[in-house]
Amino acid sequence: QVQLVESGGGLVQAGGSLRLSCTASGTFFSINAIEWYRQAPGKQRELVATISSDAKINYADSVKGRFTISRDNAKNTVYLQMNSLEPEDTAVYYCKANIELFLVPARDYWGQGTQVTVSS
Fold it and tell me: What is the tens place of the pLDDT at every residue in 91-102?
């Protein structure tokens, strides 16, 4: 069984930094694209950043220049370094990974989410 576990959320003042981690556990063949999403209260879930299996990266315009996504394939982990945080970044952050099991087509798995709160 595949699980994604996020960590690193918390409370930080505006202008501060946090680093989120998302680690995949279980038995699987490969991890393809990994994405970070966030959902603020009363708002739809939005895509924040994407990193492909060959490290192609995309960011939402709202976080470009402030957030950095990276992955460590040896550790089955993706990171989201968040700098210059703003109160508008307050949300629950989720990772989603497209994972292929042995002899099973790839599908998306979600983590449970980690709360990020930025105070003004």
Answer: 999 999 999 998
